[in-house]
UniProtKB/TrEMBL annotation:
Residues 5-183 form the 3-hydroxyacyl-CoA dehydrogenase NAD binding domain. Belongs to the 3-hydroxyacyl-CoA dehydrogenase family. It comes from Planococcus lenghuensis. This is 3-hydroxybutyryl-CoA dehydrogenase. Keywords: NAD, Oxidoreductase.
Length: 283
């Protein structure tokens, strides 16, 4: 199948990054959020990234304008009527995703693929909200989207080979590397990454070392580009907690219990970089 028109749901850090890389690759992009302010914030982020590319001589001003010109604003999920693929990147919550997928199923053309950028929620369960589970798939980008190479592609129970191949081809057109993964809690990326982050939070909670020391150990000792607490702030502590809860519930194994300190920070609204405060202060 041919993909020309892409709709992205959610203009947060992931949705705006996905919209940027799709527009850069020449796709027509409709970027949707519930609120105009959220859409405007998303476009501001994209514009900032593209302007940096122009300053560094990687793009011309015309290319930047061309990319921005391929992104159209949407505040209504019914704008999916022209989409060949929808990539959902709203909040990590099953009820929200179910409601979005139900609406998209009614609004999008029959041939359209409904993809989700979920970090951990079961693709099969999201697909069950639609009448087209064979056209629902996980397309899991990494943060920051314009920089990271990987897209995990997750098959739901009913996903067809045709849909898998179309998403794999699109991923390659975006300049990214697709990796096939089955539908299990946390897939591969977050099943391995998030318990490490959670353990770092337990280590902090138990007073084993300061936050700076914990991050330094993993940066200098293991050559990670960011320490685990800085990375948690970067991902969003709410998203980290949602993922740990999915792992804990999905496997029924106490080794995945979220750290109480993580719960406390989320309850306080300290969600990391995006709210200005998490383990570190960004104000
Ligand atoms: C939770 C999930 O479901 C899955 C996930 O995504 S888990 C998170 C996965 N991501 C990671 O693990 C990221 C780990 N961190 C890193 O790789 C690096 O710290 C980083 C790429 C984010 C920043 O790299 P850095 O060397 O420390 O900083 P910096 O020099 O400012 O940036 C490097 C390049 O990335 C670009 N960059 C950094 N942040 C960016 C952003 N948010 N958007 C676009 N580009 C960005 C910079 O412009 C810079 O590009 P050039 O060198 O070509 O100019
Ligand atoms: N953060 C990360 O590192 C990664 C996250 N993901 C996944 O990507 C998704 C988005 O995460 P992220 O971008 O970090 O989150 P953000 O909080 O940055 O962005 C989510 C955006 O979606 C909007 N939104 C919420 N509900 C709806 C809706 N019903 N319709 C349209 N828009 C909606 C939010 O609006 P408002 O703010 O007004 O609620 C917000 O603008 C999640 O599923 C997450 O698990 C995947 C890979 C990495």
């Amino acid at each position: 199948m041919t993909i020309e028109n892409v709709m992205v749901i959610g203009a947060g850090q992931m949705g705006s990054g996905i919209a940027q890389v799709c527009a850069q690759a020449g796709f027509n992009v409709t970027l949707n959020d519930m609120k105009e302010e959220a859409y405007n914030r998303g476009i501001q982020g994209i514009t900032k990234n593209l302007s940096r590319d122009v300053e560094k001589g990687r793009k011309t001003e015309e290319e930047k304008e061309g990319i921005l010109g391929r992104i159209t604003k949407s505040l209504d999920l019914n704008d999916a009527k022209n989409a060949d693929i929808v990539i959902e990147a709203a909040v990590e919550n099953m009820d929200v995703k179910h409601s979005i997928f139900k609406t998209l199923d009614a609004a999008a053309p029959e041939h359209a693929i409904l993809a989700t950028n979920t970090s951990s929620l079961p693709i099969t369960e999201i697909a069950a909200a639609t009448n087209r589970p064979e056209r629902v798939i996980g397309m899991h980008f990494m943060n920051p989207v314009p920089v990271m190479q990987l897209v995990e592609i997750i098959r739901g129970l009913a996903t067809t080979d045709e849909v898998y191949t179309a998403v794999e081809d699109m991923t390659t057109k975006l300049g990214k590397t697709p990796v096939e993964v089955q539908d299990f809690p946390g897939f591969v990326s977050n099943r391995i990454l998030m318990p490490m982050i959670n353990e770092a939070i337990f280590t902090l909670q138990e007073g084993v070392a300061s936050k700076e020391a914990i991050d330094s150990v993993m940066k200098l000792g293991m050559n990670h580009p960011m320490g685990p607490l800085t990375l948690a702030d970067f991902i969003g502590l709410d998203t980290c907690l949602y993922i740990m809860e999915i792992l804990y519930e999905g496997f029924g194994d106490s080794k995945y219990r979220p750290s109480p300190l993580l719960r406390k920070y989320v309850a306080a609204g300290w969600l990391g970089k995006k709210t200005g405060r998490g383990f570190y202060d960004y104000s």
